[in-house]
Design a protein that fits this description.
The complex is a heterodimer of chains A (269) and B (74). By secondary structure, chain A is an alpha/beta fold. Chain A contains eleven helices and eight strands. Helix content of chain A is 35%, strand content 17%. The chains are: A alpha/beta (269), B alpha+beta (74). Chains A and B meet through helix 2 and helix 3 of A and helix 1 of B.
């Protein structure tokens, strides 16, 4: 892969890094990453991966931009209200870095479409705001042997883990989704906008580390933070032999669509 | 093998970026002679090369005053 003069300048701060260099930037440029959800987490992930020159970025989201999204979903602008989020995101990515091939899926990730969509990518980023799809991403990635980054935010809190085959998955820690409406979502409970950026950029860094092979991933660990105290904690985890999807005798071998909380199906405002 | 690179028209940090890209193409043991101007590039290129594990063999002023040659071994 030969970088153009403009690409050498654009990616110079990566090329300068001893651990990344030309080879690392080539790996980034060949990388294919799927971002599930073009919202609070997906926005910073998409921006930083696009800026880094990730070769192919897939974005899946069935929603349109709502005025209430703009407090944290920084890839969408006021003029984008009512526009499909995937189109709004694609426009910004192309403006930021025309090198990036953006593939959009204006739909929800489901048990039906997940295997086929995920199959085209090297890494999957969970930028969703609900448990059914978080578990779906986990199961689909574990079954397909794909690495992914889980991310979740609520109020002032964030948590993330990275899974690569053989390490603890989301279900090793959290066996099943909570019952619908048992746990509030961001749209019900609120969220400090900036923590979407805090967590999303951690996820973006994990993707870049995975693609370049630099450093140690957040595997077999759960990172959580609270923005009120600005305390970060990393809890060690391990793969559970009894995990229903990645354990020794998995009971989940097919994908399931868990019921969404009623309020999540309606338009959020 | 010995190779040459002229970064006298570049500014920091592109002087070292270009040097690093050129070094990346070479084989271990190859030599790259990098032409730089005095000042920042003359300080930064050898320092960065050393920091990133390359062997700076010599820094000498060329026949043109103010232009230096940095001999780097991969």
């Amino acid at each position: 892969m030969n970088f153009t003069e403009d690409q050498i300048i654009r990616y110079s701060r990566h090329i300068l890094l001893q651990d990344v260099g030309v080879d690392g930037q080539e790996k980034i440029s060949k990388g294919k990453v799927l971002i599930v959800g073009a919202g609070g987490l997906g926005a910073p992930v998409a921006f930083y991966l696009a800026a880094a020159g990730v070769g192919t970025i897939g974005i899946i989201d069935g929603d349109v931009v709502d005025l209430s999204n703009l407090q944290r979903q920084i890839i969408h602008f006021t003029q984008d209200v009512d526009k499909p989020k995937v189109l709004s995101a694609k426009e910004k990515i192309s403006q930021l870095n025309p090198d990036v091939n953006v593939i959009t899926y204006q739909t929800l990730l489901s048990s039906e479409n997940a295997p086929e969509i995920i199959n085209d990518y090297d890494f999957v980023v969970d930028g969703t705001d609900n448990f059914p799809v978080k578990f779906l991403i986990n199961d689909a990635c574990v079954i397909a042997g794909k690495p992914f980054s889980h991310g979740g935010i609520l109020r002032f809190d964030g948590q993330t883990l990275t899974h690569v085959p053989g390490t603890a998955c989301y279900r090793c820690l959290f066996h099943a989704p909570p019952p619908p409406n048992a746990v509030p979502t961001c749209s019900q409970a609120g969220v400090l906008g900036a923590i979407a950026g805090m967590l999303g950029t951690i996820q973006a860094a994990e993707v870049l580390k995975y693609l370049t092979g630099v450093g140690e991933l957040l595997t077999n660990k759960l990172l959580s933070f609270n923005a009120k105290t600005m305390e970060f904690r990393t809890i060690k985890t391990k793969r559970s032999e009894k995990c229903p999807v990645c354990g020794s005798n998995p009971t989940i071998t097919q994908l399931v669509d868990y019921a969404q909380a009623a309020c999540e199906i309606k338009t959020k405002r | 093998m010995t190779y040459n690179l002229d970064v006298t028209k570049e500014h920091c940090p592109m002087t070292f970026v270009k040097t690093k890209i050129e070094l990346n193409k070479l084989r271990k043991g190859d030599i790259l002679n990098v032409k730089v101007i005095a000042g920042e590039p003359l300080e930064n290129v050898p320092r960065s090369a050393t920091e990133q594990g390359f062997n700076v063999l010599s820094v000498t002023e060329t026949a043109t005053p103010g232009i230096y040659n940095i001999e780097i071994e991969k």
